[in-house]
């Protein structure tokens, strides 16, 4: 039955606890985070309350000094003293102690305000005696001798109650207890201690009707205060939860964006990927601007289906000179794959090519693709660089060392044959599906021939690449014709010089 009642009760806000008399989250961690985030607002509202109370004390002190002919100091001194108390509280709000004990601070200030505002109820310190018949009393001879009228004192009571519920930031049950106690004390003291000069002749029955009407007004004020208190708590916690959810969604979007960027950067160079994503963002912004600046009549119309094809990216091809191209092939791959399953072979290739990818990043080369057991990359493309030849040579020598380490770890007998050539390439992205960054030119084909005519364990380079190198590398004549024969050498290789980089 308890669970049924909880289901029937409306929830004040999302993730609200079942304790309606103390609105808060159902999670202590969430509640603590909310209190921490909302503390600046609570602190600011408390300072506003101190400012309001201080101004009220100053105005009351001026009023007592001008209006009253007797007992001026009796009322002026407490008002001015409480003004100093408000100043002290205001200074205290800037300390770290207030941040730890702001609830106790609000409670102390509330009790002090109660004491100060209940004091004028003891205007004559002379209780009503007898049967309570006030019909024989006469109006005051001089109205300036009075302290506060009934309307003025009741207005002050309303101000105190509204301050309690709106800015003191005490728990609801404590605010309700203090507010009801204050109302009872206010009316009790106001009835038993009346100034003989501050009354209007009324019958005995009219007094009780007056008390009944005041009680009804107090109930209305408490209802308004509770409503304001609950709505303030609901609004602050709902806002906190929505902001938190928005931040979490924003972080999720950032993670998704980073994942998308990593995926795009894995299939194409960073400079081209960034350019494509920037163009996509610009097109999205222009589309939003066109939609926002369209006329209201056009907004009401149902948008027609676009018949033009949606292009993922504009076609873009770039010619770059002075680019070094590296082709590498695994020598002994066929023998290694003869006695292995497809799953084991793919695992070995993934391990080996993963080492090459890390080496490619270290040597500032740009990986193009893998074709079976062939791995090829470039340097100086798509971003030109002066040391493109050094990058490819270091990449080739590093691949030879990497495969030697691979053979020691995996107990295999394979080697690398590497060819490097320098020339001009066309680079870009072709196709609409399963697209990839690639390079094309006769120099790319020549680099492939350099690899095919190379020697295992050495980097075979052309004369065009050797021009960009200095004496830091030990080289020897490639002797292509002596090794492969005149008939094998293609026409485009005739008359060219080739070298083997030993290290």
UniProtKB/TrEMBL annotation:
Its cofactor is Mn(2+); Mg(2+). It comes from the Eukaryota. This is adenylate cyclase. Residues 289-304 have a biased composition (Basic residues). It comes from Antrostomus carolinensis (Chuck-will's-widow). InterPro entries: A/G_cyclase, A/G_cyclase_CS, Nucleotide_cyclase. GO terms for biological process: adenylate cyclase-activating G protein-coupled receptor signaling pathway; cAMP biosynthetic process; intracellular signal transduction. It is an enzyme of class 4 (lyase). Keywords: ATP-binding, cAMP biosynthesis, Lyase, Magnesium, Membrane, Metal-binding, Nucleotide-binding, Transmembrane, Transmembrane helix.
